[in-house]
Amino acid sequence: MTPLRRREFLRQAGLSAAVLPFIVGLPSLALAAPARPRQRLVVVFSPNGTIPTAFWPDAAGRDFALKEILAPLAPFKDRMLTLQGVSNKVRGDGDGHMRGMSCLLTGIELLPGNIQGGGKSIPAGWASGISIDQEIKNFFQSRPETRTRFGSLEFGVGVQDRADPWTRMSYAGSGQPVAPISDPYQMHGKLYGQLRDRESLRSVLDPLKTELAKVRTIIGSEDRRMLEAHETLVRQLEREIAENESALRARPPELEPGVADQNDNVPRLSRMQIDLLVNSFVNDMARVATLQYTKSVGGARMNWLDITDGHHGLSHEPDTDESAQSKLIKINTWFAGEVRYLAERLAATPEPGATGSMLDHTMIVWTNELGKGNSHTLDNIPFVLIGGGMGFDMGRALKFDKVAHNRLHLALAHGVGHRLPTFGKPSLCDGGPLALG
Q: Is 363 exposed, middle or buried (0-12, 13-18, 19+ CB in 10 A)?
């Protein structure tokens, strides 16, 4: 309720302002703040920087044209924000890739450590603070109306098993990296393993009922009462199974069998993970997710694009290498197509229990650890937002003057009602949340 409406209510009721704290939460007076609609956040990561001339729109404002890399996202232009001029200003130990990755969502320095980066960088360790996805997850989990089974889910595509500051962007706290799950079958088991267990239990109970019925015809009354008690237990278990299954709004997706977690399967693994992510949102298992493609310094070979060079190696080639530039544009355009698929899936799914689509209630943030691969710059980090639900004024290309990315994280937190004064390194929060409304 706005201050003006509150004052009007007090005046009409003949009450003093001193009584307001005692009555503002009473439902019958409707003075409490209205309930927020369901909100979700998805952070999508792709590595090794972008090609700025093929990425950023030339014009700012609403009348902007999408360059080649962002062209696959054209159907969502009116629900998009491009944020040019947002910089990772975190300094300290570690090389650019390490700070680019592990400071991307944390906005704070790396801890001292023994992991040696490139060049003459000082060895470093994990990030020294929580990441914004986990901060928002904790905020949602602290409130009964937004609490979910998992809180957040961390999906990977081609991340594999290496664990170091180049491979982790989500942190539960200082020195607490959160590993993405890169195997969709493992993620499926995490989400729906209990459902499979219940189906196994039911396959035992069904024939058991038949056998019990046969036994009842050949035993005495006392034994029959004991069996009836067992049958009652069976029926109770069946009811519990049915109730648990009906709690799912959508059945789990059927995954293509036998897709190994290997380089050439990345396109198939990507779609499997996205389908699982959307399904988990439909079933309200989490309201925060990350989707991490490979890793910083990721050397994936995009053979499905007829590119046999490693991605990281290509990103180091000079701007004058037209062949490398063309391949990098093709690679980043492919990543944009996967973001589009995620947005399409969310846009095609009605919001459960509300109006509009799931995309109307979900903000996708697509980002990278570097602004440009061959310079290792942490300025002008690619940030593209797609969706709704946070009150941002979408459908614009925005240009800033090297603002700290901590201010974007503050805007995301405030967008879900989490009014943090600072996030990450406090001195990088001057100016408050980035103005996106």
A: buried
124-127 and 110-115 as β-strands: parallel, antiparallel, unpaired?
A: antiparallel
Distances (CA, A) of 105 to 43, 100, 170, 348, 362: 9, 9, 7, 29, 18
Rg value, the chain, Cα: 26
d(CA 12, CA 114): 67
**Which tokens go with 301?**
């070979």
Give 10-residue mean pLDDT values along the chain (437 residues).
Answer: 54 63 53 72 98 98 98 98 98 94 98 91 96 98 95 95 92 98 96 65 57 72 71 58 62 93 96 98 97 93 97 97 98 98 98 94 98 96 97 98 98 97 98 95
In three-state form (DSSP H/G/I as H, E/B as E, the rest C), the secondary structure along 362-431 is EEEEEECCCCECCCCECCCCCEEEEECCCCCCCCEEEEEEEEECHHHHHHHHHHCCCCCCCCCCHHHHCC
Structure tokens at 268: 């198939």
Element (H, E) at 40: strand 40-45
Domains of the chain by residue range: 1-34, 38-183+261-429, 195-246
Name the 3-class secondary structure at 108.
coil
- Helix intervals (H) in 306-375: 311-315, 322-347
Q: How far apart are CA 348 and CA 358, in angstroms?
A: 8
DSSP assignment of 171-198:
EEETTEE---B--HHHHHHHHHHHHHHH
CA 45 – CA 101 distance, rounded (Å): 9
Provide CATH code, domain 38-183+261-429. 3.40.720.10
Q: Indicate the DSSP class of residue 255.
A: P
Q: Which pTM was predicted? A: 0.83
Write the CA distances from 217 to 51, 206, 209, 228, 355, integer angstroms: 78, 18, 13, 12, 55
**Residue 184 · residue 267 · CB < 8 Å:** no
CA distance 378 to 158: 24
